[in-house]
Amino acid sequence: MDSKQIVLITGASTGFGRLIAETLARHGHTVFATMRDPVGRNAKHASEIRGLAQKESLPLSILELDVTDDASVVRAVHAAAEQAGRIDVAINNAGYGLVGLAEATPTEQAQQIMDTNFFGSVRVNRAVLPHMRRQRSGLLLHISSGAGRVVIPGFALYCATKFAMEALAESYHYELAGQGIESSIVEPGAYQTPVFVNFVTAADSTRADTYGAVAQLPTRVANILTSSSGNAQQVADAVLRIVETPAGQRQLRYRVSDTDIGVDAINSLTERIQTEILQSFGLAADTTFVHRSAAGTA
Ligand SMILES: NC(=O)c1ccc[n+]([C@@H]2O[C@H](COP(=O)([O-])OP(=O)(O)OC[C@H]3O[C@@H](n4cnc5c(N)ncnc54)[C@H](OP(=O)(O)O)[C@@H]3O)[C@@H](O)[C@H]2O)c1
């Protein structure tokens, strides 16, 4: 595989997605920075990215992609594959936070955040995988969160979406290894991006009536996260390192944060237990990464 990768990233209008897209392109990787509604709500962001690409002669272009819309995902993946001839890396980054007590979150809001944060990855992975299986190489990257490994009260639904994403990504990690395709997870701590201003609030506040001081917990936690957030370029730099790591040498999980709230301990424990489970089920050989050439030989 060429060391310069063809990358498709979701949610590239702002925050991590934008920084990752620009960082990868500045290092010579061809990047399809996708976003929803690049001629409407994201017109300013799209035009800034196009301006940067032109000014610095970067291999960076925009495609429309709404992760909640199957047809939109398929269209964008098809367009990227047509233009570049292949897709080496798909970065599932689009997502948002939902603050509030679990009980104060109506089913519809719970479904909406799952649709973006979890089903978005389901859609994107299913759209890119036929290309990667044909190439017999590729990387599915998932921007999860420390909140995909530890539970933060007041962020129940957000945590649930990231836990779900982690399970999907880890299953793909095992299921695709024999075809030379990797699936990895990035677990950032709190970083300064528009994520905090984009937080959605649980709509049914009447459910908080009997919770006493606990009703204030979501706001308290949101304030802690906002005030402790670091420089988001750290996450973009970590993604660059992962993308540039040779195939077969990438980890399943990468915690990215200045302080570790216990995520490393959980990751190393689950890695050991998963390995034992795969061995006891007799699945270890089938779930080990195998380098494959385009001709299909290992
Ligand atoms: N910042 C943190 O502290 C932190 C920590 C851990 C994990 N994360 C995760 O990092 C990812 C990026 O978040 P961020 O911090 O960079 O915040 P952000 O600036 O708010 O970025 C979120 C991105 O997701 C996009 N998006 C939302 N719904 C979408 C949809 N239906 N289709 C396509 N794109 C959609 C947004 O696009 P629009 O502009 O169109 O809304 C935006 O580009 C998220 O998955 C978040 O959960 C963030």
What does this structure look like?
The chain is α/β, with parallel strands linked by helices. The protein has one domain (6-95, 112-146, 160-191, 231-287): Rossmann fold. 44% of the residues lie in helices and 14% in strands. The protein contains 9 helices and 9 strands. The strands form 2 sheets. Strands 3-2-1-4-6-7-9 form a 7-stranded parallel β-sheet, with helices on both faces. Helix 4 packs parallel to helix 6. The radius of gyration is 19 Å and the shape is globular.
Strand residue content: 5-15%
- Which range best describes the helical content: under 10%, 10-25%, 25-40%, 40-55%, 55-70% or over 70%? 40-55%
The computed structural class is alpha/beta
Which parts are unreliable, with pLDDT below 50 for 5 consecutive residues or more? Answer: 294-298
Largest sheet: 7 strands, parallel
Keywords:
single chain; 298 residues; alpha/beta; Rossmann fold; 7-stranded parallel sheet; two-stranded parallel ribbon; 44% helix; globular; binds NADP nicotinamide-adenine-dinucleotide phosphate
